[in-house]
Design goal:
299 residues, mainly alpha, 12 helices, globular
Length: 299
């Protein structure tokens, strides 16, 4: 298998494993042994950190950080916590496929941040991408299991995407972007875990226990597959096929979530959802290709 084929395979595994987040998180929030989202994310980050740490130790990565790097990662961890919490909260109000697609629109909101706060150059292709994205959001705006709109779900998922956009913009301007992607991800998850532990201790009475083997299985898969594996496989993919193609193939994330939503949870695939999905994926692809042509790194 040549390098390009390996890169496509690695990116497919990375995106697909991340797209399985609804498969393991939704059962954890329902039923007699349901857990609150902060506790779910504590276990997710804990198992994810263990998986990534094993890889870092195997590669003999230097895990030391400076004080400034630690402070910068703390800010990134807070932003990532907000995104992760809002994403699974949104699953309570709308099907997981459209919900994940709305979060995947984060490159559009990243571009808006760059336009508003950093005076980035505006082009007709950027305008086209924004128009496609807004049309996509309007099309799939919160159709739940019964076909009724759930604007609160749409709002939550769009805020999740916005939080991740701020995460990407902040990271691109910090010193820590040079310490290595996997090392940075490990510390973002580790500090994110600490912040959620503090939050649950102060406001919810502490972390909830694992009550049965089914819960443990879902938590392990959420942490090791959807968190550790997805990030570990992403890094070689970027090196093998480039950042632009890696970003475009990220469309497998919402596609996987959409398939899980329909086949596992019985959600309805309606024309507005199909149209919204196509419009948002199209908007992100247009934006990424535009950045590639202008030789501006895609985020």
């Amino acid at each position: 298998m040549n390098t390009t084929a390996k890169g496509f395979c690695n990116r497919w595994v990375s995106a697909t494993s991340f797209g399985l987040i609804p498969l393991f998180s939704i059962p954890l929030m329902t039923g007699t042994t349901a857990m609150q989202p902060p506790s779910i994310l504590i276990y997710r980050f804990a198992f994810g950190c263990l998986g990534i740490l094993c890889v870092l130790l195997w590669k003999r990565t230097d895990l030391r950080l400076s004080r400034i790097e630690l402070m910068q990662i703390a800010l990134l961890a807070l932003l990532y916590d907000v995104e992760a919490l809002l994403m699974i909260l949104g699953y309570k109000y709308m099907p997981s496929g459209p919900a994940t697609t709305l979060v995947f629109s984060y490159p559009i909101w990243t571009e808006m941040i760059m336009l508003i706060f950093f005076k980035a150059r505006f082009s007709w292709t950027t305008m086209l991408a924004l128009a496609l994205a807004f049309a996509g959001v309007a099309s799939m705006s919160g159709f739940d299991h019964s076909g009724q709109t759930q604007p609160i779900g749409v709002g939550i998922e769009l805020m999740a995407g916005l939080a991740y956009s701020f995460y990407m913009v902040a990271m691109s301007r910090m010193r820590v972007r040079h310490i290595g992607s996997l090392k940075l991800t490990f510390y973002v998850f580790l500090l994110g875990l600490v912040f959620f532990l503090i939050f649950t201790t102060m406001f919810t009475g502490g972390i909830e226990p694992v009550r049965d083997t089914s819960t443990l299985y879902n938590l392990l898969m959420l942490g090791l597959v959807c968190t550790a594996l997805s990030n570990v496989m992403l890094i070689p993919a970027v090196k093998q096929i480039g950042a632009t193609m890696t970003a475009i193939l990220g469309a497998f994330e919402p596609l996987t979530a959409m398939i899980v939503s329909i086949l596992v949870f019985g959600d309805h695939l309606t024309a507005p959802i199909i149209g919204g999905f196509a419009l948002i994926i199209g908007a992100v692809t247009v934006l990424i290709l535009t950045k590639m042509r202008s030789r501006v790194p895609a985020v």
